[in-house]
Amino acid sequence: MNDQPTYKLPPFPIPNRNTIRVFSARIEEITRDRNTTLVTISYNDCIGCARPEDLVRLVVDRNTIIHDERGRNIRANELERGMIVDATFSSAMTRSIPPQAQAFLIRIVRRRSANQSTTGRITQVNTRGNYIITISNLNPSSAIRFNLSPETVIFNPSGRRIPLSLLVPGLRVRVEHAAFMTASIPPQTTAFVIQILR
Questions:
Q1: Fewer CB within 10 A of the end CB, N or C, for the chain?
Q2: What is the pTM (predicted TM-score) of this model?
Q3: Which fold has domain 115-196?
């Protein structure tokens, strides 16, 4: 028997044809008027490669299904810049920059405000074990091991998504991470967002 929680299907079917599904996209900008919200997201469907991320502006209206992390229906005004979301939207897009498309489903994966952040320099990058170790203020006792999951996103100083392989010791980074730390040496936690600082 599988004890994993299941994600409920939306109350009405989303068209299977002519749709695009993206995962772990970041909300970059939100603009609102009376009946429509425009949500600009950045995403990269080439996991682990150095290809620049894509931008799309999603048209969110009353027909768009929006779920929080627990699968509950929420309103568009609860979406915030910096959230990580999964999205399903129409492949029919405008030729504007960025292109614009109708959003069918948006599911919040993670809220930025719930994270803690730590700034330090990378001392070790392990691409096989999927973790990095940082220290703050050149103090070895401040070392923290940040474990990366498939949902961890890494950004260069310009805000472009990059793969773990482009991180190297010596880079100064800000890591948004879970509030918990293990009692190990060094302590470990899960990294959600790694931002290279200038």
A1: N
A2: 0.54
A3: OB fold (Dihydrolipoamide Acetyltransferase, E2P) (2.40.50)
